[in-house]
Design goal:
The protein is of the alpha+beta class. The chain has helices at about 1-15, 25-40, 85-95, 120-125, 150-160, 175-190, 195-205, 245-250, 255-265, 270-280, 340-355, 360-375, 385-390, 395-405, and strands at about 45-50, 55-65, 80, 210, 225, 235, 250, 295-300, 305-315, 315-325, 330-335, 415-425, 425-435, 440-445, 455-460. A hairpin with a 7-residue loop joins strand 14 (about 440-445) and strand 15 (about 455-460).
């Protein structure tokens, strides 16, 4: 009977949900999020794609793609930079599945002249624990990038240096490791990396827009922009050919990246355990969790598990978020090398399309909103507070809270952030209060239990 019950439960869980289109209100909210982020940051354009219930429900572009393309279009390929790393990781995994290599092989088997080749595994190239020095830690195009290079040129200059640490003992982002990984793909497969990916990944998934970013330059493509401090937004000259290679050489539309995200959600193309391997954070030799798997980071947003990676190339920034449990994904591509607008847009769009977090404590959120409104109106009910909290809210504190909070008008949103957390015998909770063009952060501690009182209620600006 227990077995039958379990099978029935699994059958229900395995039944695909009916895909839900975005409502007009959700689409309008996304439009407002993007318009606001572009206006505040000065980023010229954004191209986005939204996946819900395992299918693309929105693909849209905003702003100016280049000096020759005044209106961005969703069919234009943007440089996705380091988001490319998960494709390089997949290439090695596909070769492993073919029986042509193992991720536990030593680099020396393929490229013996690399520093530490006898001790570095292919897996450590992909999870950034190889110890190879990163050739591009800067957030700008440095002098050498004005001259074309090759993967071998990068390896000759950086991969022959002494290792920064013993492989597996530390985590340090290394584009160099991915250049080495790409060269191994080419050596084992007998094909250029992009040709291998085109045949084994892009064509099978219908990703028709993918192109080498070195070739995605000119009047038909989005143009990268830069900004010095708060100065004017300027066209940013692209790097010379060859500098990103397997570490970040791809350009594609947001929709094509969304097709890859759907393959991840469906466990398609790669064996399911390979996707799991990508999404399992590596542990160092001392047991510490790196938060990074094979070409992707593993984190959380508002209590939800998210598989993500950002990308930064010359004049472009991008963010890709995948929520496996919710079968949702958000892709945001921008042609600006400045500001965090790409991250803000991705996170705000995710909040717009996902239901209220299952971890959000709605009852406590309602109580917190009551206290907040009382502070705004100057009618604080101290019976809802512990003696310490009542002590904190002196007449001066109450007057300042009322004057400053009432002056900014009615909030447009009040949401829980993250999960409840124990501390010092209390339960900590966080909230975000939105006002359109600004937001406030609320930090509270409450007594345990459903009827607990507030030990702390602090309201602060979000910088």
């Amino acid at each position: 009977m227990i077995r039958l019950s379990l099978l029935l439960t699994l059958a229900v869980l395995a039944t695909p949900a009916v895909a839900r289109d975005l409502t007009p209100a959700e689409t309008a909210r996304i439009d407002a999020v993007v318009a606001d982020a572009l206006a505040k940051s000065g980023a010229p354009s954004a191209s986005i794609a939204v996946v819900r219930d395992g299918r693309i429900v929105l693909a849209k572009a905003y702003g100016k793609a280049s000096e020759t393309i005044p209106a961005a279009r969703p069919d234009l390929p943007y440089q996705v930079a380091s988001i490319s790393k998960q494709f390089t990781a997949a290439a090695l995994q596909l070769l492993e599945n073919d029986g042509k290599l193992s991720l536990d092989d030593r680099v020396a088997k393929y490229l013996p002249d690399i520093s530490g080749a006898e001790t570095i595994t292919l897996r450590q190239l992909l999870d950034h624990t190889s110890g190879l020095q990163d050739y591009w830690p800067q957030d700008y195009s440095f002098a050498a990038m004005a001259t074309p290079t090759t993967p071998q040129g990068i390896v000759d200059r950086w991969a022959g240096k002494p290792l920064d640490f013993a492989p597996g003992s530390q985590w340090q982002y290394s584009n160099t490791g991915y250049v080495v990984a790409g060269m191994i793909v080419e050596k084992v497969s007998g094909q250029p990396l992009l040709s291998f990916l085109d045949a084994r990944v892009f064509k099978p998934l219908g990703m028709a827009s993918v192109i080498d970013q070195d070739k995605a330059i000119g009047p038909r493509f989005p143009q990268g922009y830069q900004r010095f401090a708060l100065g004017p937004v300027r066209v940013e000259p692209p790097a010379a050919d060859g500098w990103l290679y397997a570490a970040g050489e791809l350009s594609m539309t947001a929709s094509d990246l969304a097709r890859w995200n759907i393959a991840r959600l469906d466990r398609a193309l790669l064996p399911a355990d390979y996707w799991t391997a990508q999404e399992t954070a590596t542990r160092l030799t001392d047991g510490k969790d790196t938060g990074y798997g094979l070409g992707v980071s593993i984190g959380s947003l508002d209590g939800r598990r998210v598989i993500e990676h950002s990308g930064a190339s010359v004049g472009f920034l991008s963010q890709n978020l995948v929520f496996p449990a919710e079968r949702a994904a958000v892709t945001v591509l921008t042609n600006a090398s400045f500001s965090n607008a790409y991250r803000v847009m991705a996170q705000m769009i995710a909040r717009a399309i996902l239901p209220a977090s299952a971890n959000a404590d709605t009852a406590w959120a309602a109580k917190a909103r009551i206290i907040f409104d009382q502070l705004r109106s100057g009618t604080l009910d101290t019976s809802l507070l512990t003696s310490n909290a009542a002590y904190y809210f002196t007449p001066t504190a109450r007057a300042d809270y009322k004057a400053s909070l009432s002056a900014i008008g009615e909030p447009t949103g009040f949401t829980a952030v993250g999960q409840p957390r124990p501390r010092g015998g209390f339960v900590g909770r966080s909230y975000r209060v939105s006002y359109g063009d600004r937001a406030l952060a609320i930090s509270v501690f409450t007594e345990p239990g459903d009827d607990g009182r507030f030990e702390q209620f602090l309201v602060q600006p979000i910088q």
